[in-house]
UniProtKB/TrEMBL annotation, chains A, B:
<dbReference type="Pfam" id="PF00441">
    <property type="entry name" value="Acyl-CoA_dh_1"/>
</dbReference>
<dbReference type="GO" id="GO:0016627">
    <property type="term" value="F:oxidoreductase activity, acting on the CH-CH group of donors"/>
</dbReference>
<keyword id="KW-0285">Flavoprotein</keyword>
<keyword id="KW-0560">Oxidoreductase</keyword>
<dbReference type="InterPro" id="IPR006091">
    <property type="entry name" value="Acyl-CoA_Oxase/DH_mid-dom"/>
</dbReference>
<protein>
    <submittedName>
        <fullName>Acyl-CoA dehydrogenase</fullName>
    </submittedName>
</protein>
<dbReference type="InterPro" id="IPR037069">
    <property type="entry name" value="AcylCoA_DH/ox_N_sf"/>
</dbReference>
<dbReference type="InterPro" id="IPR046373">
    <property type="entry name" value="Acyl-CoA_Oxase/DH_mid-dom_sf"/>
</dbReference>
<dbReference type="GO" id="GO:0050660">
    <property type="term" value="F:flavin adenine dinucleotide binding"/>
</dbReference>
<dbReference type="Pfam" id="PF12806">
    <property type="entry name" value="Acyl-CoA_dh_C"/>
</dbReference>
<dbReference type="InterPro" id="IPR052166">
    <property type="entry name" value="Diverse_Acyl-CoA_DH"/>
</dbReference>
<feature type="domain" description="Acyl-CoA dehydrogenase/oxidase N-terminal">
    <location>
        <begin position="80"/>
        <end position="157"/>
    </location>
</feature>
<dbReference type="Pfam" id="PF02770">
    <property type="entry name" value="Acyl-CoA_dh_M"/>
</dbReference>
<dbReference type="InterPro" id="IPR009100">
    <property type="entry name" value="AcylCoA_DH/oxidase_NM_dom_sf"/>
</dbReference>
<dbReference type="Pfam" id="PF02771">
    <property type="entry name" value="Acyl-CoA_dh_N"/>
</dbReference>
<feature type="domain" description="Acyl-CoA oxidase/dehydrogenase middle">
    <location>
        <begin position="163"/>
        <end position="265"/>
    </location>
</feature>
<keyword id="KW-0274">FAD</keyword>
Length: 598, 598
């Protein structure tokens, strides 16, 4: 794979500099040492390492998934080489404070850099990304001593991190977790329980693994109000920072997945007695923040992970799209429909309108998705007060958009991967081409970190009313700033009108649903609501990108952006009316279905 | 897997007996020895063998794809055991004349029986199904001697068959094939060329393999008008029927696929000189039918194969749906949205409305798809004059519906498999559950036997005007018979009205598109046209099924049928208006896209 097939640097530059004005961020004190030059340098470095050391073993990861030999989990050696290079380049702390050895990059630039690694090799890059999210949680909620002991070695690349939420009997339903944490009277706890779906849960890639584990302290309230958060390291750490005893965290099994095979995914037993730290049963754990407030802390990591899932889904779709475009330009097949002469030379796939349709659909999904994710990264910078926009609303808008940025790319950039296979025809169905792996890898994204359906319940059941509806107001304000501009131009007036119209319909439907006191009814079509909402948001993001293109330019790049925007409005947004009809009518078909009728 | 997870016998019985009146077929002389009892007996036998000998190694097939050791292609032994049992039961000739050892089963019953095998193991069942389609072609177009030499051993289970169309440089574009067939002056030909994507192209499962090969005789017209069809056996056959010399057909490689791994898929070299039959280069071939009329003969097999693809797509979706329903009834997760007590016991997945939505969508796709395929099987019987309906139009209607019956299940029953994974959550993404394999297996169906896009061009560019538009008239006649009945009933009047309305819109759009003399424009959205057409056809098929349910019955089976019909009308057909808007407006977004803009 060449860099050009991983991501489109021209497009990233457009989004960062021409659209989201990354350079303006350097006027904020936190970023004042930075300039377009430093941003570009980190981007160059990221693209280079991603290409040379991550993309090189993406298929090998897929063909050689981690194995357990009874003692240790074995992964192919290229994984460690890649992550070591990532860590040595200081990328693990790219957005962190200088005091932690970080670069203090804006989130916008950092996310754009990280995109290269996920696109090049989603399996290997999961290790550092989980570590970074874990460190961010501890920076926000851990004690100084915890940060010293656990976070610093993560930024040095010596410790890796995980998040341990699900259990075999409780996937999405955290209220039902059973892992218990017994206080030992010395400030530590001993944990007992089983955790499922733990990515990067066991391996020999790092000196230690820092598990962040949800568990219940005996006597705590039932449900999510009784959940606490613990650091449970694979190895205990001595006072001097050296590695101590093995903690009682034991691998119970590896999951064998459809894709995403480069990341170990494990079932872990805590405190089953395989190891006896301090001569005693139970896995030693250290509480993060207050007892019974663990879920709120964990949501810090989960919200970040959800944005990460969105980014992963986007870039898998994006790299698949680039592969499909290249194939369509190289592969000769058939003739134009107006050409009836069988002796004329065949044309390329890209000369067929139906192939252009499939490529344009992909372009509209993956560039729309990337723009959405980077816009949200920009909101994180705005939350720090580094905005050019009305920064007061960045926080509430980010809260509102989190389920969208997670779910929309997981749905539509996966659809892009499906179309990339289709463009390749029979070849795309073979493992000689990468597009089938991209599809399989991406298929995880609508499932983990809260399924697609759960994102819908989160959006309609919680986020739209959060902060007294301020998120919706922020979205409306920004969306209408875009449509007001677009309405002034003859080439965009059509889009402004449809977006304004659908936005008001969406609002009406939202009010209608929120007025229904019966949660079972009002949330019965939350998934469809999520999907309609997502399409409206991405249409706005597309229109805003369009407006960032120089007016009347006939540069091919800008013409492509405009055409993809037109595609999204005419061929995607146009379907949302029918979805809103169903939501508005309160269709009860699914609600009324009885189990015995299946 | 138990029989209940392969297919739903109750539903098959409903479709065959309560809806399509299979028993009425026994009044036709060809089927006069038959009765519901004989039909049921073959169905029982099929379900039994499929369950005991095909389903048992479906996952093993996936995990152990065929290998080539340099000499022979090795497949796991269970494949041969399964196919031998299929052949010994006489199923390979189930629909054939008594004179060939057949059972003279109606197509409707035969297809329903065969559905069990594809659902149980699509990989292993491809061998007999390709053989059956190959035999049918030769019965229709081969000489008496060819039938004697090649077809009879196929019905005896000794010879297997393939179809060899594509070449590495010409997948969908048969006009560009390069394999040449040199006449030898003795009525035989010698073939030279490479064929790609040949399923069942090499193995040791049978005494011989009968390849049906498209090739060009030197001096023939260019393009598809110069294509001839040849029998090219793997082994020549002596005059007495015993196996003779090895013919010059050599395995050049195996394709390694995303799914469908149980079927060998090969690249074959014809006449490369590895073998020298009669001491001479070239693969010996025998022309089927007239020289240069090969494509028309091949379409006999292709049309049958396309219906077969539709059936395969349906039953993979169907078995996935049954697995998802079972899982949703067994797995406890979360609470009702109205239940705020975390100490109340968790409910099952099926108690969540969003899960019911995913299951109901699957039900509407797979039962709609199965009904469509069986309706078409019934048309094949009507073509023989065994109809209860207006049989004159069965032929033209079948021609019209062929691209629909191929493409619609390939799209929507694949979508059902995707939803089956989603219902399973993280477990569905692992190889411990079968649903991920069903998805990967089914992903082939929108690609092979004419891609999805090619089906659209076939429908709009050819089939709708074929026979002077008689197919469209036949469809309208039958559709309006259904809506006329449905309009009389209060519970179905809503569906009748929407179906009539959308049918007339579809007709208007069709006329509009056909009036455009520029093929590049009129066919630019042929895929969207195909999808709109498919949804209209399946809505009609659903409504017709609804009407076959006893009025006012509160039997759970009929209530489920009605609810799934309602789902399809309210939540699927309702989207078609937006698609027809695009077609009617002649949206040029994709047509105008330039290559440089991607």
């Amino acid at each position: 794979m060449s860099q050009e097939l991983i991501l489109n640097r021209r497009d990233l530059d457009f989004m960062m500099y021409e659209w989201l004005d990354a350079e303006a961020l350097t006027s904020h004190p936190r970023f004042s040492d930075h300039s377009r030059e430093t941003f570009d340098a980190v981007m160059d470095l990221s693209a280079q390492i991603a290409n040379d050391l991550f993309a090189n073993h993406n298929r090998k990861n897929d063909l050689n998934e981690p194995t357990f030999d009874g003692e240790k989990v074995q992964v192919i050696p290229e994984v460690k080489t890649a992550i070591d290079a990532f860590n040595e380049a200081g990328l693990v702390a790219a957005a962190q404070d200088y005091e932690y050895g970080g670069m203090q990059l804006p989130a916008l630039v950092e996310k754009a850099c990280m995109a290269w690694f996920k696109a090049a090799n989603v399996g290997s890059s999961a290790y550092p990304f989980l570590t970074m999210a874990n460190a961010n949680l501890l920076l926000a909620h851990g004690s100084k001593a915890q940060i010293e002991t656990w976070v610093k070695p993560m930024f040095e690349g010596r410790f890796f991190g995980t998040m341990c939420l699900s259990e075999p009997q409780a996937g999405s339903s955290l209220a039902d977790i059973r892992t218990r944490a017994e206080p030992q009277g010395d400030g530590t706890y001993r944990l007992h329980g089983n955790k499922m779906w733990i990515s990067a849960g066991d391996h020999e890639l790092s000196e230690n693994i820092v598990h962040l584990v949800l568990a219940k302290v005996p006597g705590s309230p039932p449900g999510v109000k009784g959940i606490s958060l613990f650091i449970v390291p694979r190895w205990l750490v001595n006072e001097d920072g050296t590695r101590g005893e093995r903690n009682d965290v034991a691998l119970a099994g590896l999951n064998h997945k459809m894709g995403y095979r480069g990341t170990t995914n494990t079932l872990l037993n805590f405190g089953e007695g395989k190891f006896q730290p301090g001569g005693q049963g139970g896995a030693v754990g250290y509480c993060v923040g207050e007892v019974n407030k663990g879920l709120a802390c964990m949501f810090h990591m989960m919200n970040e992970a959800r944005v990460g899932v969105g980014m992963g889904a986007v870039v898998l779709g994006y790299t698949g799209y680039l592969h499909a475009v290249e194939y369509a330009k190289e592969r000769f097949q058939g003739r134009r429909l107006t050409d009836k002469d069988p002796q004329s030379p065949p044309v390329r796939l890209i000369d067929h309108t139906d192939v252009k349709r499939m490529l344009l659909a992909q372009k509209s999904y993956v560039e729309g998705g990337l723009a959405l994710v980077l816009y949200c990264a920009r909101l994180l910078d705005e939350k720090r007060g580094a905005g050019v926009c009305d920064e007061d609303d960045a926080d509430v808008l980010m809260d509102l958009l989190t389920p969208i940025v997670k779910s929309w790319p997981s749905q539509w950039c996966l659809a892009a991967n499906d179309l990339a296979i289709q463009v390749h025809g029979g070849y795309g169905y073979t493992r000689d081409y990468q597009v089938e792996q991209f599809y399989r890898d991406n298929r995880l994204n609508p499932i983990h970190e809260g399924t697609h359906g759960i994102q819908g319940l989160d959006l309609l059941g919680r986020r739209v009313r959060q902060h007294g509806g301020a998120g919706m107001q922020a979205l409306q304000r920004r969306l209408q700033m875009t449509t007001a501009k677009a309405a002034q131009r003859s080439d965009t007036a059509e889009f402004a009108a449809s977006l304004d119209a659908i936005w008001f319909r969406l609002q009406d439907v939202t009010q209608l649903l929120l007025r229904n006191p019966n949660a079972e009814e009002s949330l019965s079509d939350a998934t469809l609501y999520l999907e309609a909402f997502g399409h409206v948001v991405v249409a706005w993001i597309w229109l805003d990108q369009y407006l960032a293109c120089p007016e009347n330019s006939d540069d091919a790049f800008y013409l492509g952006k405009r055409q993809a925007c037109q595609y999204f409005f005419r061929r995607e947004l146009s379907q949302v009316d029918a979805w809103l009809d169903l939501l508005g009518d309160g269709d009860r078909t699914c609600l009324d279905m009885s189990e015995g009728w299946f």
